[in-house]
């Protein structure tokens, strides 16, 4: 069931080629951070191209509850009048972050070093996800957490009234944990140091520097060492949010799988901490090219061109690439089903604690659709059957997980029989125009009550 309304069953089926341009929405990670850092600045931040998915809208609502003025001017233009570092007010309502792990974890970090108390909740998916990974480091600053069932939402955070800076090595590869600690460090005096053994998406570091924080990043034998000087005055920014590579993954993969397709996905950020899927697809033999490579706002950007690729082969995805494509494994496993041979995905334990257990959800659906899948705690292998030979013809559960829903809908565009998902509602959390965009390319996607 979708927590945002009645379930929306959806069906996808084989049809003609996908052609044209796919203008995907703004980056989800950068959209959350734009609102939060805007709220922590003094003055007006202007944002163009904000993702208006439910996850980000919930973060905007939360920033209002903490005292910032967040205004939607229409067409992806937003402004945030911030209250400054340490300026958050105590909310007089429960903060509902909906389906968003990024939203709740970053906001907990941002409020944990102010002398205020806030209670957080979410939908059934978010309330089942682990929060101890964030509250453990926040306790070192002096914040207290009172959660359900050993660290789940609903949870109350009592912010530290006299925060101390911390030095923290992130125990799991997680940009959300790293970001929560850095955001908490903003209102602690002195230097907060965060060490990550594996590099994860670096938007928080880049954006904090852009907003005027004093921050350094050093590559050492211990890993990436990020040092932040506390209590800066953040300076409001004008932000143009780049388009989301994680959303681009869906039209790109669909074009590779559907006979005769040729799709251009313009203006996609290829930050190396995000672009792992595209290199993996190229290694599998996909006809995927980066056109018009350029730099925008200090980040590499390209137009992605994806064409039907019937001869792809399975590969062993390098585990050290996992963080740079963590949200893309579900749709990669779909591509792998249509490639020849084994696609091995290792070092991906984090997939088990996303909106659902993504290895379990994909493995069950793929098996039902005629694909052999092996799995262990932190790995899985998909045995591809090659183009034209994937049966499909089943209904799968999307488990309140947008990426599971979109992945199986992409799959159904190339299976012998249609694929149906029980609820496409969660897609609106990250890619509200998915249905319109895909049908605009020619995809056979319908709501199927
Ligand atoms: O920091 C972020 O914006 C995100 C980090 C990742 O989560 P983890 O930090 O849990 O790996 C990713 O899965 C999520 O979609 C967005
Ligand atoms: C894991 C995801 O998001 P979040 O953790 O923010 O819920 C995702 O978008 O795939």
UniProtKB/TrEMBL annotation:
> Disordered: where is this region?
1-27
Give any Pfam family that matches.
EPSP_synthase
Q: List residues of the Enolpyruvate transferase domain.
A: 13-436
Stored CDD domains? EPSP_synthase
Record: residues binding 3-phosphoshikimate = 28-29, 33, 174, 176, 327, 354
**Keyword Amino-acid biosynthesis in annotation:** yes
Q: Which GO terms describe its molecular function?
A: 3-phosphoshikimate 1-carboxyvinyltransferase activity
Family matches, as PROSITE patterns: EPSP_SYNTHASE_1, EPSP_SYNTHASE_2
Q: Which GO terms describe its biological process?
A: amino acid biosynthetic process; aromatic amino acid family biosynthetic process; chorismate biosynthetic process
Q: Name one GO cellular component term.
A: cytoplasm
Looking at its record, which EC class is this enzyme? transferase
Spell out the reaction equation it catalyses. 3-phosphoshikimate + phosphoenolpyruvate = 5-O-(1-carboxyvinyl)-3-phosphoshikimate + phosphate
Q: Which UniProt keywords apply?
A: Amino-acid biosynthesis, Aromatic amino acid biosynthesis, Cytoplasm, Transferase
Q: Which InterPro entries match?
A: Enolpyruvate_Tfrase_dom, Enolpyruvate_Tfrase_sf, EPSP_synthase, EPSP_synthase_CS, RNA3'P_cycl/enolpyr_Trfase_a/b
Compartmental location: Cytoplasm
In which pathway is this protein known to take part?
Metabolic intermediate biosynthesis; chorismate biosynthesis; chorismate from D-erythrose 4-phosphate and phosphoenolpyruvate: step 6/7
Keyword Cytoplasm applies? yes
Binding sites annotated in the UniProt record for phosphoenolpyruvate: 28, 101, 129, 176, 358, 403
Summarize subunit and interaction data from the UniProt record for this chain. Answer: Monomer.
- Role noted for this protein: Catalyzes the transfer of the enolpyruvyl moiety of phosphoenolpyruvate (PEP) to the 5-hydroxyl of shikimate-3-phosphate (S3P) to produce enolpyruvyl shikimate-3-phosphate and inorganic phosphate.
The name this protein carries in UniProt is: 3-phosphoshikimate 1-carboxyvinyltransferase
- Provide the species name: Salibaculum griseiflavum
Query: What would be the name of the gene that encodes this protein?
Result: aroA
């Amino acid at each position: 069931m979708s927590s945002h309304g009645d379930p929306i069953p959806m069906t996808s089926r084989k049809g003609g080629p996908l052609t044209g341009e796919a203008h995907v929405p703004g980056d989800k990670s950068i959209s959350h951070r734009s609102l939060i850092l805007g709220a922590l600045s003094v003055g007006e931040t202007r944002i163009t191209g904000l993702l208006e998915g439910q996850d980000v809208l919930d973060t905007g609502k939360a920033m209002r509850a903490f005292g910032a003025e967040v205004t939607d001017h229409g067409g992806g233009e937003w402004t945030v009048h911030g209250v400054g570092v340490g300026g958050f007010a105590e909310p007089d309502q429960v903060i509902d972050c909906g389906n968003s792990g990024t939203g709740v974890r970053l906001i907990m970090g941002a409020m944990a070093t102010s002398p205020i108390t806030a209670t957080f909740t979410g939908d059934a998916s978010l309330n089942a996800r682990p929060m101890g990974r964030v509250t453990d480091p926040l306790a070192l600053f002096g914040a207290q957490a009172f959660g359900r069932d050993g660290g789940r939402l609903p949870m109350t955070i009592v912010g530290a009234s006299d925060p101390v800076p911390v030095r923290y090595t992130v125990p799991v590869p997680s940009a959300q944990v790293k970001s929560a600690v850095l955001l908490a460090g903003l209102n602690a005096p002195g230097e907060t140091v965060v060490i990550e053994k594996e590099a994860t998406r670096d938007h928080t570091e880049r954006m904090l520097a852009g907003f005027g924080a004093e921050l350094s990043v050093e590559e050492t034998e211990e890993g990436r060492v990020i040092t932040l000087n506390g209590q800066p005055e953040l300076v409001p920014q004008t932000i143009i949010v780049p388009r989301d590579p994680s959303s681009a993954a869906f039209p790109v993969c669909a074009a590779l799988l559907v006979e005769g397709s040729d799709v251009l996905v313009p203006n996609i950020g290829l930050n190396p901490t995000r672009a792992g899927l595209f290199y993996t697809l190229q290694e599998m033999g996909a006809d995927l090219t980066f056109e018009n490579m350029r730099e925008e706002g200090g980040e590499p950007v390209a137009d992605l061109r994806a064409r039907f690729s019937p001869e792809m082969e399975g590969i062993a995805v390098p585990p050290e690439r996992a963080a740079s494509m963590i949200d893309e494994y579900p749709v990669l496993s779909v591509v792998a089903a249509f490639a020849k041979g084994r696609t091995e995905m290792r070092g991906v334990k984090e997939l088990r604690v996303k909106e659902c257990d993504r290895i379990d959800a994909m493995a069950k659906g793929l098996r039902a659709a005629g694909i052999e899948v092996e799995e262990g705690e932190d790995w899985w292998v998909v045995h591809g059957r090659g183009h034209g030979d994937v049966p499909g013809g089943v209904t799968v559960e999307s488990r309140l997980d947008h990426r599971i829903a979109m992945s199986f809908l992409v799959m159904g565009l190339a299976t012998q029989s249609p694929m149906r998902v029980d609820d496409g509602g969660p897609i609106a959390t990250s890619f509200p125009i998915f249905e319109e965009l895909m049908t605009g390319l020619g995809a056979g996607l319908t709501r199927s009550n």
